[in-house]
Amino acid sequence: MSKAQNATQKFLDTNQYSRNSILRYESVYGTDFVSPGGRQYASQLIEKLALPFDSTVLDVGCGLGGSAFLMAQKFNLFVDGIDLSTNMLALARERLSTYRLGSRVTLRHQDCLTLSLHDHYDAVYSRDVFLHIQDKSHLFSTLYNALRRPGKLLFTDYCCSEQPWRPDFSRYVKSRGYHLRTVSQYADLLSQAGFQEVLALDITARFIAILESDITKIAALEMDKVSRDELTESWRSKLNRAHSGNHRWGLFTGVK
């Protein structure tokens, strides 16, 4: 995949999000989650939205459905979850059926850049997904249009420092096909799309703390030594990239 392309369903499903890779991520992040902080951090972020009961949320890149299920079960929200990975959705749909949340949660295969709904959602929520998308101006314009006033946007995403980067970080970004921005660049993009009350926070310190906790958790996982060693090495590499300053983590909010 060239640097200028968005991630495709095929690229995601055959690389980072193969079924086996997804289940390994889940073993670290916790049941139904594939993003840093798992259920606990997701709950804190959803609380930040402060949405009334029965509000409607678009979960962009819903993954295994953990946040969507949490929004429905704990916060009494209606959620439309979309994802580009068919492997993620297959697993999420199995859990949706088990949890009997079909009246509050829908899951569908869709590219968020093709959304055509206008003034529809009370909030848009996303966790570490926009790094796969090159045209972020189009992304935020589309999400802005999908919100009704005074709709809220909240997302976390992998970010980066200003270039030049260390060679290991450059190789990592290229191998994943990521399209990273600095925290301040994201703030500018949100403002340009029309969002008000934009808040852009560098939460890399929290990312580092989560990674360190995860490494301890990985050591106790019941799996073969080769798999455990591979996970440990992957997490330590992420930790090193974060400590180097190149790999950042950002939390962003805005209001229509």
The helix content, as a percent range, equals 40-55%
Q: What's the total number of strands?
A: 7
| Global outline | globular
What is the name of the CATH architecture? 3-Layer(aba) Sandwich
- CATH fold-level name: Rossmann fold
Tally of individual domains: 1
Counted by DSSP, the helix tally is: 10
Please state the CA-atom Rg, rounded to the nearest Å. Answer: 17 Å
Give the termini distance in whole angstroms. Answer: 34 Å
Give the uncertain stretches in residue-range form.
Answer: none
Secondary-structure element series: HHHEHEHEEHEHHEHHE
Strand order of the largest sheet: 3-2-1-4-5-7-6
Query: What structural class should be given to the helix and strand makeup?
Result: alpha/beta
CATH superfamily: Vaccinia Virus protein VP39
Q: CATH first level: which class?
A: Alpha Beta
Describe, in plain words, how this protein is organized in 3D.
This protein is of the alpha/beta class and 256 residues long. It has a single domain (9-255), classed as 3-Layer(aba) Sandwich (Rossmann fold), CATH 3.40.50. It is 47% helix and 21% strand. It contains ten helices and seven strands. The protein has a seven-stranded mixed β-sheet with strand order 3-2-1-4-5-7-6, sandwiched between helices. Strand 4, helix 6 (136-146) and strand 5 (147-160) form a beta-alpha-beta unit. The mean pLDDT is 94.
Q: What is the element layout, followed by pairings?
A:
Layout: H1 9-14, H2 19-29, H3 38-49, E1 56-60, H4 66-75, E2 78-83, H5 86-99, E3 105-109, E4 121-127, H6 136-146, E5 147-160, H7 167-176, H8 183-192, E6 196-202, H9 204-219, H10 225-244, E7 247-255
Parallel strand pairs: 1-2, 1-4, 2-3, 4-5
Antiparallel strand pairs: 5-7, 6-7
Helix pairs in contact: 3-4, 9-10
